[in-house]
Amino acid sequence: MSPLSYLPPLPQFLFSTLFVSGLAAKILHIGLHFHSLPFLYLALYSPTLFLPDFLVITCGRILLRFPTPETRLQWLSTCIGGLLSLITWGAASIQFGFFLQTGAEVAWAASNSFLSDPAAMKILLSGITTVSAASTVLGFAAWAIYGRLYNVTGLALQGVQDSVMGLFKARYTLIGQPSKSWLATFDLRTMRRIAIFVSLFTSLLFLQITRPAIPYNHISGALPLTLLDAFTKKSATDQGCREPAPNFPLWNRDKFTPAQWSRPSWLPENPPSGFSRWVKSPLERAEEDNAAYYLCNDAESAFFNPFDDPLKISNLGGEIYEPLQKAFKDHAVSIDHVVLLTLESGRKELFPIHQGTPMFDALVASHKAHAQKDAIDRLLKITPVAQMLTGETVLDSNGQAIKPDNATKWHDRTADGMGGLNVRGAVTGSSLTFKSILGSHCGVQPLPVDLLEETQLEIYQPCLPQLLELFNRVKSSSELSSEEVDALERPWKSVFMQSITDEYDRQNEMNEQMGFEEHVVKSNLTSMTSKYRASSKEINYFGYAETELRPYLQDLFNEAAHNNTRVFLSHVTSTTHHPWNTPRDFDTQKYLGREGGIKHDAMNSYLNSVNFVDGWLGEIMSMLDESGIANSTLVVIVGDHGQAFAEDNKDLTGTYENGHISNFRVPLVFRHPHMPRIDIDANATSLSIIPTILDMLVQSGSLNDHDSDIASHLLPEYQGQSLIRPFLSSINDTSIEGRESRKHEGNEMPATRYQWNFGIINGGGSMISVTTAGLPYRLVLPLKNEFEYIFSDLDKDPGELHVTKAWSIGALKKAVKEEYGSDAVKWLESAGKVGKWWVRQQRRIWGYREA
């Protein structure tokens, strides 16, 4: 017998795949939201949840009703039905594959951006194994039931057709015979069918009308109809009028009155990009460029004004930490160069790794009880360089302090009590890497829309490379060309380096927009004309291991030491990005056991990649030592975001549309060998990086008088606080005079105002994280109806193992009051209002409009 004889008739199999794939995807869809829905409501509204799928399946069965196409119409019908089935099969396979990888569901609205980005496609293709497996399982299931399913659904449709046609036939034949009721022509079976149909239709209609829109409208979405979201991508534009500033919800502000504009005396004739709002008056910009820079029919400037920001809290009037005051006064701190290291997926719990965190407890729990002591000591050896950079004490299983052993690639020779600032409690402004980099490099908060739409707009504050270029332009050419030029008169050179592609999500455009003069990325490592080409194989879908940059870094540091150049280097690591591969010659370890009921392979790979990057940081510090510039270099280390694993949250992993706290806690270190060691407990963000660097440069005397004057003028313009002064989690204004002066349109400001922190949740336009520095409460605020509100108290639940969820802010407040009390409810109410205000405000100051 021919193998082909085992193949099912094509129309029957295609319909079966449509049926199986569509219903399987819907069951998965409902299952992901099952825990958040009252069971009674779910059971009551379940028929309406499946109604769209029923309509799609019915449509597919009608299109595929001809087993042997004979006419053009039949061929067309079969082709359309087959295409519908294949699309549904493929989309369902992707949904299951994505779920198996991350525990989440696909957001089709964001898929358009990935499909149009070659680098992003590699991320999608990395999950091809699970997608293929899901596709195979769905295909086998469809093959197993294709014959019976096709026949049963055909008979059902035939019965409906017969009843409807019988109804119309009886009505038609009795026209003109008013003496005889047309209902009398129906037999009992037909009447029963009609009654059932009317009852079902009426019930479904009633349930559809009365069910809550949130979340049931989202849950009822059916494949392939939900794929239409992929074609609704909107892009940024700065054309047209910007929205007026939204009213701040916690108190009313005075009506904006534009200040008298004048060009700053410190601004050179031809400043670099990034200084638009200082170059021309708002009115000039409106007249010469376009109306987007000026509010139509009003006098409110569309430029960002930090002094009109109701959330801005400045600590520049505070005293510098006393140990730093002495070091600056004694001219012990010299900052000729700045190195900003951004750690991909850099979690604070791993910088350095130490006992006492929810993550560490989960890692130890993966081992059997008798092996846990050895496991603790093995885990604590992952990050010796981070331990030296932060100065944090790490205790072994016996409670003894651990000192990095001689196997490390760098040994910190800094005197005891020296090393700089270590911030404990820092959180990222975005779990999407490039939006996070905008905060650390430009001091701006990101745009709450999917992916890097900021590249299509103007960054509303000068980025660090642009600031340094401004310092260059106010110096005369003769000063810059002198061979024996004073250190403070030397030109700055801004360089960006990473060993992976810069083409993902328009990163190359962003780097250019930020003002980097030079860059070294994957294209340099593979170019035939490059000085140093990559000698190893790529380790992931983005590019190479960081060690391929070694000769480029050595050249840059030597140039800084010998060529009278001041260097700003930005370097982003990448090995700690999924899939967490390391070079073949790297000695990987088995850090986790098999306990806990989950697979620990992903976390184990991640820990090995963390160990690799920790060693790479040691190499960078060694290169600074060897070039002779370590004592005059400020090294800033920050994580772009964290990385959630099953050990943190079994339900949802990764960063995509995952608001878990493990994606937000990041390290933040300002390392200088001649600065006293200070541990800072503050819920700061990367917004503090530029203010802190500028403040350090000014206070340490590392800028000449003119540059120092510029930096001092620009410091108050940034939204973040300087971390060489005590961080203000809140400000109090309890005096009668002070409170009277802060009345706005009859509504008094509160006596205590908090520092609000916002975090974009990857991919940007679906959810934000809202916290206030100094308070333990946290809100994940949905921007779309398909996501829940999530509240947590990080003092009681630091690992967010037992969060409170609800589909509305009202329901969430009720649940929070029962568990956490009225103070938490008051904060939650304010957080919801401020978060929604912040989203509108960010779109306004970025000049974002959807095209």
Fold and architecture overview:
By secondary structure, the protein is α/β, with parallel strands linked by helices. It has three domains: 7-231, no CATH class; 311-442 and 465-501 and 512-728, Alkaline Phosphatase, subunit A (3-Layer(aba) Sandwich); 736-850. The protein contains 26 helices and 19 strands. The two termini are 60 Å apart. Residues 504-696 form the Sulfatase N-terminal domain. Keywords: Membrane, Transmembrane, Transmembrane helix.
Assign the CATH superfamily of the largest domain.
Alkaline Phosphatase, subunit A
**Multimeric status of the protein:** single chain
SSE class:
alpha/beta
CATH architecture classification of the largest domain: 3-Layer(aba) Sandwich
Strand order of the largest sheet: 5-4-6-2-7-8-3-9
Strand segment count: 19
- Helical run tally: 26
Shape, principal axes of CA atoms = globular
Summarize the main sheet.
8 strands, mixed
Average pLDDT, rounded to a whole number, is: 85
Q: What's the structural domain tally?
A: 3
Task: Briefly note the CATH topology name of the largest domain.
Answer: Alkaline Phosphatase, subunit A
Quick one: CATH class of the largest domain? Alpha Beta
Poorly predicted regions are: 1-7, 734-746
Rg estimate, integer Å: 31 Å
Instruction: Report, as a whole number of angstroms, the end-to-end distance.
Output: 60 Å
- Percent helix range: 40-55%
Q: Percent of residues in beta strands?
A: 5-15%
Organism: Penicillium chermesinum
Domain Sulfatase N-terminal: 504-696
Transmembrane segments: 12-32, 38-63, 75-100, 120-146, 194-214
Keywords: Membrane, Transmembrane, Transmembrane helix
